[in-house]
Design a protein that fits this description.
Rossmann fold; 7-stranded parallel beta sheet; extended; alpha/beta; 4 domains
Length: about 425
């Protein structure tokens, strides 16, 4: 047995459901496990949990329960949520290889491989732009968004340190249309575990339904019953979800409660610190935030209703999705970079000094936030090195926060050398 790897697998789909892509993902995971490697799959919030496979799901989306397969506008926010889950899992797991499925997974993996500094394996299962045309997400190759998305697809392909396909035809497509280097291209044919995935022909119920459908002359009553059973089984895969006013209201309620908590916390801090006369600034800021939200909503409604008609809609959706994913990556990376106590203390020190030039109220709030964070992590004493001669007034702020002088130091220096001694 050679080196055993820890593999972070990214599956931007509702794993597991009865689709060919999902079966390939599951079979590859089981094959890698059999070789002694650890496989952790990050995937969407919905899907079946498969036995013997570690799965990390993204945030739950209560209004979307059906399996997500192929191109869909829902995948914009689903992929954003999956990006955060993959980053979080990667930071905890410390994988030695990232194995990404589908182009969305490869795009997420391309960012993660730079953060985690590990190689990326891309499991290519077909052309992204061709699938978008097949699912009517793009009107055709003459669409305005096609050229941009085709270039994006090629850029995603080239990010992989190794790319595997399920057929020689797919490998030839990559060599011919995308000029992918042959030395990084591998073909791994699909395999199937026939003990687990097999027709239900051995069950009495399926035998009876098949006999009714094949009867001569046709047994219409039995055939209708069999067709009704088949239709009932397939219905969950065909029903599309849609947004309603209730969905929008729940989002507004959730975000409104979060904003209200921030406002209440700021007001409570002002009261405890003896600055109740400054509450007007808090209410003014909250009011301006509401007005800004209404103005932004009206502006977006006017702009999108004009420019999102026809083929422009595809371009706007693509750009919006990429911007949202980039923003989420930035915020996630920022949060993780402040996870350690040392990094957080350094950040608070820098922000507190900057806040001094804007008013002691903000600086004091940051200090108290830092004290609470240190206390929650087990520290009972905090210390700061302060330049007492600094004109920013830092010492007054620290004393107001309850800190006292523990030690004083004088820093002395002298230039030495022949010229300095004269």
């Amino acid at each position: 047995m050679g080196l055993r790897h820890t593999i972070l697998m990214i599956a931007p789909t509702s794993f597991f459901a009865d689709y060919g892509c999902h079966i390939r993902i599951w079979q590859e995971a089981k094959a890698l496990q059999k070789l002694g490697h650890r496989v952790v799959i990050t995937t969407y919030h919905n899907g079946d949990d498969m036995p013997g496979v570690e799965i990390r799901r993204s945030w739950d989306v209560p209004w979307l329960k059906r399996a997500m397969v192929g191109s869909s506008r829902h995948k914009i926010y689903l992929d954003a949520a999956l990006s955060y889950r993959a980053l979080e899992t990667g930071r905890r797991l410390r994988p030695t290889i990232i194995h990404a499925h589908l182009h969305e997974g490869a795009l997420i993996g391309a960012v993660l491989k730079r953060i985690l500094r590990v190689p990326l394996v891309f499991d290519f299962q077909g052309s992204m732009t061709s699938e978008m045309i097949d699912h009517h997400f793009l009107s055709g190759k003459d669409s305005r968004a096609y050229t941009m998305l085709r270039r994006l697809e090629q850029a995603i392909n080239t990010q992989a340190d190794a790319l595997i396909t399920s057929s020689e035809n797919a490998a030839e497509l990559l060599r011919r249309d995308f000029r992918f280097p042959n030395d990084r291209l591998y073909t791994v044919a699909d395999g199937i575990n026939t003990d687990r995935f097999r027709p239900l022909a051995e069950t009495p119920a399926w035998q009876a339904e098949r006999a009714a459908l094949r009867a001569e002359p046709a047994d219409t009553a039995a055939a209708s019953t069999a067709l009704a059973s088949i239709r009932s089984t397939l219905t969950p895969y065909t029903v599309d979800s849609s947004y309603s006013a209730l969905d929008a209201a729940l989002i507004i309620l959730r975000e409104g409660l979060e904003a209200l908590l921030v406002v209440v916390a700021l007001l409570a801090f002002l009261r405890k610190s003896g600055n109740s006369d400054k509450r007007g600034w808090i209410w003014a800021g909250a009011g301006l935030g509401v007005l800004a939200s209404i103005g932004a909503a009206l502006a977006l409604q006017a702009i999108f209703s004009t420019v999102s008609a026809g083929r422009n809609r595809e371009l706007i959706e693509g750009i919006t999705g990429l911007v949202a994913a980039a923003l989420l990556f930035y915020v996630s990376y920022w949060l993780h970079s402040k996870a350690s106590l040392g990094a957080w203390k350094k950040y608070i020190d820098a922000r507190t000094t900057q806040a001094l030039a804007r008013g002691s109220m903000l600086g004091l709030a940051l200090l108290r936030q830092a004290f609470g964070a240190f206390y929650a992590r087990g520290l009972r004493t905090v210390g700061l090195g302060v330049d007492a001669q600094n004109l920013s007034g830092a010492t007054r702020l620290y004393e107001r926060a309850g800190m006292v002088v523990a030690e004083r130091y004088d820093h002395k220096e002298k230039q030495i050398g022949r010229e300095a001694d004269k």
